[in-house]
Amino acid sequence: MRIALIVDRADNSWDSTDLAAALSRLGHDVVVHDLPRSQNGDLIEEFADRWRTTTPSVVDCRSRFASRAAVTVARAMEIPVVYSPRLTESTSNGTVACDIALQADRVIASCTAELTELVAGSVPRDRISVVPYGVDTEHFTPDGDRPPNDGHFRLVAVGDLAPSNGFATAVAALCGLPDTELVVAGAPQHGAHATELRDYARRLGVSTRLYIRGPVDRATLPALLRSAHVVLCTPWRPRFGIPALEATACGVAVVANNNGGLTDIVVDGITGLLVTPHRPRALATAVWKLLRHPVLRQQYGAAGWDRARARYSWHQIALQTVEVYRRAGAIDEEARSSA
Prior knowledge:
Blueprint: E1 2-8, H1 14-25, E2 29-35, H2 43-53, E3 58-61, H3 64-76, E4 81-83, E5 106-109, H4 112-120, E6 128-130, E7 153-158, H5 167-173, E8 180-185, H6 192-204, E9 210-212, H7 221-226, E10 230-233, H8 242-249, E11 254-257, H9 262-265, E12 272-275, H10 280-292, H11 294-311, H12 314-328, H13 333-338
Parallel strand pairs: 1-2, 1-3, 3-4, 4-5, 5-6, 7-8, 7-10, 8-9, 10-11, 11-12
C-alpha cells in the first residue's frame, strides 16, 4: 500500500515518524509530506504534481495546515482520505475542529473523548475509528538508567510550562506530601509560568522541593520517568496524555486528571489513579496512597507496562491504522495488480 502522510513540521511530529516507520516495517510504501507552515507556493499544485507521478493508495491527513489542500487534490484524483485530528487542532474551548473530518472517508480519533467531540460536531459515528497514539516500547521500558535522588519520594511531571498543564495543582499538592519532591520537565524553564510556579511554591513553603529542570530530550526522558515513584499528569483541558503513556511503558504508576485521553490510558485502580482536576488535596491523597504502599505502586507499574506493550506498541497501532485505511477504500498494490 502506498501511504501519503501529511504532517506539520511546526508540531512535535515524532509520533508520525514512528507511525511511518512501523507502517514501513509492515511492508508498506510510506511517504511523509513534512511541510513547513512558512512554505510559499500553491500546496494544491504541489500535491497534484507529486501524486500524478506516484499516486498513493490513501492520504492520511495529520496536519490541519496542509490538510485542506491535500483533501482537495485527493478528492479530485479519487484517492481515499483519512483524517487524524491533531492535539494542536482544538478550538479555543478545547474541542476538536470538525470541518476537515466531515470531508474524509474515515476519521481516526485518538481517544474516547475525541470520538465524543467528533460525533458532537456531526461527524457520523460509523466513519470514526479510535486508534490511539503509540509508544516506542523498545525505548520506553522499565529497564535502564535512572537519575539518583537524595532520598525523597520523587514525583515527575512532563509538558510545556503553560498554566493549562496544571502544574500549579501539583505544586499545591506538595503541601500534603511530606518528604516528597516534584520535578517538572518542560520549557521554557525560565519563562513567565515557570516564574509563577516558583513564586507559588515559595508562598506555600515548598520551594525547596520543587525542581523545574527545563526540557528533557527524548533520549533521556525514559531515565527521568523511571526515577519517579509516581508520574503526575494534571492538564486542565482534555488531551491524549502522551507523558502518561510513556510513564506506563516505563513501568511507573501514574496519577492523572480524570479527563480527555487520560481516562483511556490510566485504568483507575489498575495502572494508576484518576482524580478530579483542580483539586490539590485529592491529588495529594491519591499520590500519598501510592507512596505509602510500595507493593501497590509496583503492581500498578507492572500492569501499566503490560498494557502499554499489548495495546500501545507502534506495531499494534500500525496494524490498526492499516485496517482504517482499508475501510476508507485503500487497496494494497498487490491486490490492485491481481484484480
